[in-house]
């Protein structure tokens, strides 16, 4: 996957709907919605949601700050990034 640009996604809380939403950063398209953050981040759910081509997911805290970033598949994780 060297040189391939990863699609970027963000998992954030939609306070109005009281749901966690995974959105494509470029298109702002809703990919999947979850009742809880735990539901979204457990058991490979995010990996499935980003699809077979993979991508990079920024996971936000309730306050909107970035908590962590995950890359799927892990082999596509840029070598220069910590984590």
Structure in words:
13% of the residues lie in helices and 37% in strands. 13% of the residues are buried. The protein starts with 7 loop residues before the first strand and ends in an 11-residue tail after the last strand. The model has no long low-confidence stretch (mean pLDDT 89). With 83 residues, the protein is mainly β.
Layout of strands and helices, then pairs:
Elements: E1 8-14, E2 19-24, E3 30-34, H1 37-41, H2 45-50, E4 55-60, E5 66-72
Parallel strand pairs: 1-4
Antiparallel strand pairs: 1-2, 2-3, 4-5
Keywords:
five-stranded mixed beta sheet, 2 helices, 37% strand, globular, single chain, 83 residues, mainly beta
Low-confidence stretches: none
Derived from helix and strand composition plus strand pairing, the structural class reads: mainly beta
Q: Whole-number average pLDDT?
A: 89
Q: What distance separates the N and C termini?
A: 18 Å
Q: Please state how the strands of the largest beta sheet are arranged side by side.
A: 3-2-1-4-5
The biggest sheet, with number of strands, parallel, antiparallel or mixed sense and barrel status, is: 5 strands, mixed
Radius of gyration: 12 Å
What is the count of β-strands? 5
Q: What fraction strand?
A: 35-45%
Number of helices: 2
Portion of residues within helices: 10-25%
What sort of overall outline do the alpha carbons produce when their principal axes are compared? globular
Q: Encode the helix/strand succession as letters.
A: EEEHHEE
